[in-house]
Amino acid sequence: MLAIALVIASGAALLIMALTTIESLEETTSAYYERTRFADIFARAKRAPDSLGRDIAEIPGVRLAETRIVEGAILDMPGFAEPVVAQLISLPERGPQLLNALVIRSGRLVEPSRPNEVVVSEPFADAHRLRPGDSFDAVLRGSKRRLLVVGTALSPEFVYAIAPGGLMPDDERFGVMWMGRDALAAAFDLESSFNSVTLSLLPDADPKEVIQRIDALLGPFGGVGAYARADQTSNWFLESEIAQQKNMSRILPTIFLAVAAFLTNMVMARLIETERREIGLMKAFGYGNLAIGWHYAKMVLAIGTIGVLIGSVLGAWLGHWNTELYTQFYRFPFLLYRPGPAGFVIAGSVSLAAALAGSLAAVRRAVRLPPAEAMLPPSPPIYRRTWASRTALAGALDEPSRMILRRIVRWPMRAFLASLGLAMSISVLIMALQWVDAIDSLVETVFERGQHQDATVAFNDLQPLDTVGSFENLPGVLAAEPYRYVSAHISHGHHVQRQGIIGVPHGAILSPVFDNERGRIEVPPDGLVLSRKLAELLEVATGDTVTVEVLEGRQPQAELPVAQIFDTYIGKPAYMDMDALNRMAGDGRVVSGLHVSVDAPSRTALLTKLKDIPNIASILFRQAAIDTFYKTMGETIFIFIGFFVAFSMTLSVGVTYNSIRIALSERARELATLRVLGFSRWEISYILLGEVGILTWISIPIGAVLGFSLAWYMTSAFETELYRVPLVLRHATYGKAALIALAAALTCAAIVRRRLDRLDLIAVLKTRE
Amino acid sequence: MENETSAIALEARDLTKIYRMGTVEVRALRGVDVELREGELVVLLGPSGSGKSTLLNILGGLDTPSSGTVIFRGRELALDSERALNLYRRNHVGFVFQFYNLIPSLTARENVSLVTEIARDPMPPPEALAMVGLAERMDHFPAQLSGGEQQRVAIARAIAKRPDLLLCDEPTGALDSKTGILVLDAILRINRELGTTTALITHNAVIAEIANRVLYFADGRIVETRRNAVQRAPAELAW
């Protein structure tokens, strides 16, 4: 009974965890966005006059518009070898921020008259142990400045703070800081101008229309296309995390509750079998079917309630823990974990319904018996010799094995369901362990086979091609490979994607276009090479023509053929030959950045040098990316794997334990007879446990197939435009899952087997069944 | 078959058995001495609760006495060793019970094979079934056999390993007299043809007529021993 309650508890706990986490994240997010007036639309430009801000504010449907300056900088943090990338955002000189208000965590905002004061994002401050009063050096457009931290803050724009081009938050190497508008304007030569604007809309405004108007206004000033809140990086990550939680809340609890229903059915059927006489007696006394049905239903409800209660406590605790786990990566100034009754009511009623549904058939069978018949012992099960009994193989079997097989054949449905329950536990294990394989494979494909640079440097402005040469002369640089990047709209028919195009030089080695299967791809001299995800979104195939609208510089348009489509796990990139891209953009032979490979011993010297080079907007290190990837995964995925393993153990223990207990109660008489005939304890243990053993073996291949399907479902459900988790299942993963399941089954078997030692031989033989 | 000079197969000395049922102590055996000679057919007769089943269970290694010893062919049974008792049952004792205790998932032949597979010198299962007159029904499952047939399968199962002792606890208790006679016939035939020392419990005094010797039980003791001058055939009995 406890085993059933625990399986129900697992299902309820998972459901409650998922539901309350979703509830909490949604509630926290919306409260945070509302309190800080998180913008609805975001736009960037090269340099737009302040007066244009007023035009933008007057676009119909706009409630508020706030212009600002957003720039990149390289920081030299004390005690940290690598250069750190910073995003600098201006604060209004007078009055509060209209939109995206900061939440000050310590210290204060900057004062207008002090140009070197900054407020830094709290995660960055934590990573570098910065406190108000500390200072560090920064290179702002080529000139080195010392910045003084006056406060730390959180911003709704950076709940999930990732560096441009990064995949995971790396608080050591990327920080956001806020400075006075005048100070930033002076440093970046943007007086009376802005390069970023954010807007909030009136409730009935159409964001698409507003975006079109903004693009029209900002176009001449180097606008690179406005986007709505849904496409804002931090918010996008947050929303997709919530969506994934919703996915999880559907599939996993369903598995647990299905198994719970099966277990309840199995146990109730046996219980009712043993209580036939009592049922007959009660009916003979005049109790109605409903009264008897209700009696057993109450019992199921009691077990279910215990399960739900354990599940609620566990689920509420897990939900809180899970939500707190999120706040390590999603930085909120506060966390609303106030699980409403909804999650518990849903989980409770679903779990109880599953338990009741599971016992329905058994209870119905019980009340259908006429009292006279019910008071008689049940007629012995009738076995038949099937064709299989007559085969040569069957002839070779010993009688104990025959007993095991005959029972399985006699109750095939029960055997199948028990196997299925065990298979589900194996499939949950496979699904959980698959993440390790998938992540290893993703990292291997993307970072190890696909990329060979040690660092990627992005410039603030386009640089002439010969910059490559000057980089190659830096200490420790073994090779440098340029790339070009342009923001663009790529469209086909009515499909439009805002997707930058990367120009790759002919014969690229450090960071070539890399297909998951085919490996390095040479970019043809003309035409686009699109990632499969982008091709799907645009509904194009190789040979189709797409329209490319460059969003920078002279904003040319071109019709380009799709030369190739390739598969990648990350993003939805589009590539072109670098020379062709430069020709199309009309900027001459220029580069946006460089990939460099570095000689390890001279690394430190190079890092020091990089901190002083002007015009570098960001530097990304490949190894740091891998490390952060694993660190982040380690903190989330691996914890989840741990508890999925625990939950699936509950499943397999629940099924194994109940199967053996029921087999024992049904066969106590047989087993005692065998003991009398001179069979040893181990020989009768074989007969008792052999059945579960066979069912466990059968469950392994079923579990492998289910596990593969579940892993497939999970990877496709988790597929986003940002990344796709590959469906990779090593043989060892199946093996590990099977071993864990076998270990659980063996442990259970060992525990129940001990009851055989206490089998009362005489009492059993003295009674008629 | 049996005579007074044949060797003693099994003897028990000063057996007592005390059960504790809640706070009540039940003295099931109060110092019983008994010996069974090779090939002898002994009937244990007495009202229920008189201790005959307890004695049979102890003699068969199914239960242990509170005190006393059991000597099988001159060697004392290690009553405290679960393993030794199991080997004793496996190699030397065949049981027949009131409720046949057949394995429902195995056919008659397979029920017998169950025992012959672990025995040292068994007879082929068809031979054992032929001895109880069931050669024709070997491939039937217990649910397809009558009560008497099931009991005869149980006897075939008990004797297929050629046991030294055949212990029968109320083998006809659940059967009508006609069927009961068939079962007793089978037991008697085994006793005669194989020379198996046989002890049979009954509370039906008529059945005692088939024995060499009858032990009367009352209140945990053997109160009387009677030797039948003439062993009657089961077919001559009526009850």
From TrEMBL, chain B:
Where's the ABC transporter domain? 10-237
Q: Which domain of life is it from?
A: Bacteria
A Pfam family per the record: ABC_tran
A GO MF term:
ATP binding
Keywords on record = ATP-binding, Nucleotide-binding, Transport
Cross-referenced Gene3D superfamilies:
P-loop containing nucleotide triphosphate hydrolases
Transmembrane residues, as ranges? none
Nucleotide-binding keyword on record = yes
Under PANTHER family, the record lists: ABC TRANSPORTER ATP-BINDING PROTEIN MG467-RELATED, LIPOPROTEIN-RELEASING SYSTEM ATP-BINDING PROTEIN LOLD
Assigned protein family: Belongs to the ABC transporter superfamily.
What name does this protein carry?
ABC transport system ATP-binding protein
Organism name: Sinorhizobium kostiense
